[in-house]
Specification:
alpha+beta; VC0467-like; ten-stranded mixed beta sheet
């Protein structure tokens, strides 16, 4: 999927009461969104008990010099597939630029580069992704469910996963505790 305009390079924040427990308090870094569909990486939650060291170990990559950071829950689609969101100062065979804001890589070469210190200056690792078919996300955006925010890369690289959802709403000037989770009837 080509990294095209629309919501690419922005964040989707799950509204309170979205109705799908997999996306409760979700923060999705949108990497591609065009007429064919959309792809984003969840950055609002980590996978308990799984770290970068565990992932490197599964590929027999020595990474003792790398911080043993948590791995993020990227989304429910292909949860065994790994992705790295990173600064655009590194590029590999499959790296795509995401609206000039960050980059996305999904092959083992980035893990090797991170482990040996030649990788991007900032990064986070995720398993799985959030994906939408043709027109699906556009339809969801017209209903109560998602808020898109054009926050800076500090939301990815300087904010903890646990704080990203609230920080994303703060970027938009919204207190999420003041949002209704449903609508009444008159």
């Amino acid at each position: 999927m080509d990294a095209s305009p629309f919501l690419t390079g922005q964040y989707l924040l799950a509204m309170p009461g979205i109705g799908d427990p997999r996306f409760s308090r979700a923060v999705i870094a949108m990497c591609a969104h065009d007429e064919n569909g959309a792809l984003g990486i969840g950055v609002g939650a980590t996978i308990e008990g799984l770290t970068l060291g565990d992932v490197l170990g599964q590929f027999d990559i020595e990474g003792a010099a790398v911080a043993d950071t948590p791995v993020h829950f990227g989304g429910p689609v292909e949860p065994q597939r790994g992705f790295v969101l990173h600064t655009p100062d590194w590029g590999g065979q499959d790296t795509i630029d995401v609206a000039g804001r960050w980059a996305l890589s999904g092959t083992i070469d980035i893990l090797r580069a991170i482990a040996d210190g030649s990788g991007p200056s900032r990064w986070l690792v995720a398993l799985g992704y959030a994906g939408w078919g043709e027109g699906q996300l556009d339809a969801e955006m017209t209903k109560h469910g998602w808020l898109n925010v054009a926050a800076g890369t500090h939301l990815l690289f300087d904010t903890t996963a646990e704080a990203r959802w609230r920080a994303g709403f703060a970027e938009a000037g919204i207190d999420p505790t003041m949002l209704a989770t449903g609508a009444g009837t008159a």
